[in-house]
């Protein structure tokens, strides 16, 4: 076993160490925009149908490498909990997207990117990468009023302080309302199976990413997210609570999670081929499939 960190802006974590030819662009370190731009809706649907993509890991996320085969690393993503694998969420990452260079231990504060994307800059101001929402980096120095110096697998870089703050006033908002306000910025973003980055989300990845931005770490998948948190009665739901849904009018397997947005509305990443959207709970079949409501944040 060897510890590494993700040095790609976002690394896809694949089910198997083989990909389609059209997925080759996803192996670049600079980001996933070129890959996604050439995928049709049917191509993205196939990611779920064939269970090709299992999750994503963000820049600087720690992983444990089990072994490497033909340029692919079998890894566990440490920050994504999975009850079957105590080391982290399992899958395959293209090994060139990982850095095994040891980093100095930083015991100070960590910043989290709270915008869809923000540049990671070199000392001279040149852009190294576009960092995704949820990226977490240890701070080396915060003396500059505009930028934090941060430690990364690519060396010390700079991140704008405004990008690690919410782009709206939060003083009067609960943490749940803050997540809804942040989630609104991704309306009409295409669903991405396995996604938890600014490039696209699946339903549980959307919940995971928004909670990460308020300092709460969820399990990665719906089946495990439902096991944690504080149960909430339907009549007591507040914005930011997670609503879980099961097949067969609530009697079957869990299949979806959405954020309660208030006044009977949900905010969610629905299914492959669809976009992040609002949905009125009472006007959809999901109203008969709601089985659990959980809250993972607390008011101060």
TrEMBL record:
Protein name in the entry: Gamma-D-glutamyl-meso-diaminopimelate peptidase [Lactobacillus pentosus]
SUPFAM superfamilies (alphabetical): Cysteine proteinases
Gene3D superfamilies: endopeptidase domain like (from Nostoc punctiforme)
GO molecular function, one term: cysteine-type peptidase activity
Membership in a protein family: Belongs to the peptidase C40 family.
PANTHER family linked to this entry: GAMMA-D-GLUTAMYL-L-LYSINE DIPEPTIDYL-PEPTIDASE, MUREIN DD-ENDOPEPTIDASE MEPH-RELATED
GO biological process entries: proteolysis
Residue intervals of the NlpC/P60 domain: 173-297
UniProt keyword terms in alphabetical order: Hydrolase, Protease, Thiol protease
PROSITE patterns attached to this UniProt entry: NLPC_P60
Domain of life: Bacteria
Keyword check for Hydrolase: yes
């Amino acid at each position: 076993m060897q510890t590494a960190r993700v040095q790609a802006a976002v690394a896809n974590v694949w089910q198997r160490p083989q990909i389609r030819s059209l997925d080759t662009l996803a192996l670049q370190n600079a980001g996933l925009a070129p890959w996604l731009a050439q995928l049709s809706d049917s191509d993205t649907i196939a990611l779920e149908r064939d269970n090709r993509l299992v999750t994503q890991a963000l820049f600087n996320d720690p992983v444990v490498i089990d072994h490497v085969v033909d340029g692919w690393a079998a890894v566990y993503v440490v920050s994504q909990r999975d009850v079957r694998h105590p080391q982290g969420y399992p899958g395959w990452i293209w090994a060139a997207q990982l850095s095994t260079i040891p980093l100095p231990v930083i015991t100070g504060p960590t910043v989290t990117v709270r915008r869809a994307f923000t540049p990671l800059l070199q000392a001279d101001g040149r852009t190294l990468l576009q960092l995704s929402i949820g990226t977490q980096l240890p701070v080396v120095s915060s003396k500059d009023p505009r930028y934090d110096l941060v430690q990364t697998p690519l060396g010390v870089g700079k991140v704008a302080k405004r990008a690690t703050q919410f782009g709206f006033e939060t003083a009067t908002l609960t943490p749940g309302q803050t997540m809804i306000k942040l989630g609104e910025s991704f309306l009409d973003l295409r669903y991405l199976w396995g996604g938890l980055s600014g490039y696209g989300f699946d339903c549980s990845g959307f919940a995971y990413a928004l909670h990460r931005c308020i300092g709460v770490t969820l399990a990665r998948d719906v089946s495990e997210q439902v096991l944690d948190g504080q149960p909430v009665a339907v009549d007591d739901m507040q914005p930011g609570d997670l609503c879980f849904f099961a097949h067969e009018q609530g009697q079957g397997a869990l299949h979806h999670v959405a954020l309660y947005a208030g006044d009977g509305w949900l905010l969610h990443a629905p299914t492959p081929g669809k976009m992040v959207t609002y949905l009125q709970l009472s006007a959809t079949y999901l109203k008969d499939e709601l089985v659990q409501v959980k809250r993972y944040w607390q008011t101060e």
